[in-house]
């Protein structure tokens, strides 16, 4: 290993498994269950956070006698007024003004919570990656970070429902995002550490597929639990992620890293190392494309509950949207799994990644146009099916592509952490931009779909200049 680039001088700790061995199969089994746990907690927390922000903003805006208003009926009245089929009374006009403020506030509030959390995570993930590269322990370099992140994140999730206002929620959720994503990023780095080159596509398919399935099932279960126990629904998922990571540590232990020798970490060198991979043209194109794609994806999917309540016709209540939003995603699961299964093996077989990334991104972009031109519940289901095909294919080849464009495989933790930063930056920019769009268009959610489509199409084009990967 190059000490100049990583400060670590013992490469034996990251030796890869031999193909088709029991050790590799045991690792893949253990890590897919960990990926499932991460997916469950991600899908559940995203849905519950939308509902929690909405409840806080409702309590702030609709006070006194206005607190008993039925948002679903008020939204229907707004649609009738917009269509010139109803004339509101003076009291209704007052409530409709509050509705516009509410729709804008909840979108802005959710974007603030997501964006701050993702920025914090984005800044810290490369630090975690670099530190994990240099970690010395009997459990190896990655497992301590996986366990520490999962345990601390679970505790914070249990406390999250106690947030009395948006400001406290921003702080708590930022810590949740940081800890859980640090655990997940450290786990993802074990793929680069341990999986042989010819099995990276398979590993990406398994872990990506289980993480995606977990996110869908987690959101669906969270929607059902929310209608039964409210925000207490965070607790079961906090327990699940801890169990999943502990099982990984027990079933697929890493080699001891006590023998690594690390040079002193200087602040300037450390900070410059964050962006070292971006000096490589191929990595830079892949990274920018990832930021744009996840920005568009986050814009279109992050407001699913609000779309059902405030965009489609007829509008839904909060309890209906809490269950229906996950169902919309769930219906796309079989199509995503088909994309994952086919593309993972196919890309390994022909040793090509770019065509699959380009095609998957283009499919996702086209899907966003369906609800834009047809704002109904059936359109939301159709959009989910089409997008799932593209997204399933994308999550498989995206990880494989980044591993293959790593400019310095000896600094995999650092540079894959930067890749995760790109994902997180997209997840921060998407909701923030969506919140701005809703504000500009006075509480209207429709333009989000068009902007998301454009961003993902641009991401598709940016994959073309990559040279090192076919």
TrEMBL record:
Spans traversing the lipid bilayer: 28-49, 109-131, 200-225, 231-252, 287-308, 320-344, 356-374, 380-406, 418-442, 448-466
Keywords: Membrane, Transmembrane, Transmembrane helix
Places the protein is found: Cell membrane
Keyword Membrane recorded: yes
Protein topology in the membrane: Multi-pass membrane protein
Domain Major facilitator superfamily (MFS) profile span(s) in chain numbering: 52-470
Primary location group: membrane
Molecular function terms, GO-annotated: transmembrane transporter activity
SUPFAM superfamilies: MFS general substrate transporter (SSF103473)
GO cellular component annotations of the record: plasma membrane
Taxonomic superkingdom: Bacteria
Keyword Transferase recorded: no
InterPro entries, per the entry: MFS, MFS_dom, MFS_trans_sf
Family matches, as PANTHER family: MAJOR FACILITATOR SUPERFAMILY (MFS) PROFILE DOMAIN-CONTAINING PROTEIN (PTHR23528:SF1), PTHR23528
Protein name, as recorded: MFS transporter
Provenance organism: Leifsonia tongyongensis
